[in-house]
Amino acid sequence: CPYGKTRDNCEAECFIKVExxxxxxxxxxxxxxxxxxxxxxxxxxIYPPLYLKKLRSLxxxxxxxxxxxxxxxxxxxxxxxxxxxxxxxxxxxMCVSKGLTGGYLxxxxxxxxxxxxxxxxxxxxxGKAFMHSHTYSGNPLGCSAALAVQKILxxxxxxxxxxxRAGYLTEQLNSKLLDRDYVxxxxxxxxIHAIELVEDKKTKRGFSSEERVGYQIYKEALQNGxxxxxxxxxxxxxxxxIIDEEEIDxxxxxxxxxxxxxxxxxx
Length: 267
Ligand SMILES: Cc1ncc(COP(=O)(O)O)c(C=O)c1O
Description:
Strand content: 15-25%
CATH architecture of the largest domain: 3-Layer(aba) Sandwich
CATH topology of the largest domain: Aspartate Aminotransferase, domain 2
Helix content: 25-40%
Number of strands: 11
Number of domains: 2
CATH superfamily of the largest domain: Type I PLP-dependent aspartate aminotransferase-like (Major domain)
Number of helices: 8
Shape: globular
Order of helices and strands: HEEEHEHEEHHHEEEHEEH
Bound molecules: pyridoxal-5'-phosphate
Distance between the termini: 30 Å
Structural class: alpha+beta
Largest sheet: 5 strands, antiparallel
């Protein structure tokens, strides 16, 4: 952190950068898009709810729409139904997909406030309705899958059970990997856990990008029957919400074995 803060004492000091941007462009800006709390493909970076709260207030102050991309975080991935719930905020537009149908069928929804909806709406006679549509809007199969998933999430207490599994995953990953020289941080939100691999544990300096450490470990893991998806020097777990403890143990065992054998091979 450029402000010398840790997760325990972070007060979203870096938000000052957003304030500067709003000062410069806020009056002419119409919307800002964020991945709430978790920047996925940027390296599974997790930031505090306070940052989102501040952003909501700033958007209100400048009358800028807040668009939350909850495609990766929605439907329990971060431990709450939506990542925005951690901050107690409501975006003006929210994008959801992936977990909506449990990944079984392709479906996405863009959800807006009544105010935004009304800006698009007009009586036919006025001739100013926004007539664009989507080829697969409201696909009946997709909708059925989405409704079934929502019913299961609620009736089977999936989020509540996933919370326990998330705690178990944190505990196990920490106990098996945190003391390794090459692990700089294990960060997590809900069941999502990211392992940051570093060359220097003290300074947290990562491995050179030329070495493609994550990709090398990914190949090693394939040999061990585990499919990992590396993002640079970051390996992450983003398992199904219904994963059980036995499966967690097995995945961690194979993951640790894969990392260890790569680290030994590079000496
Ligand atoms: C945060 C985020 N936004 C958007 C997308 C793309 O979503 P879709 O495939 O539903 O268009 C992804 C896909 O990985 C994502 O992770």
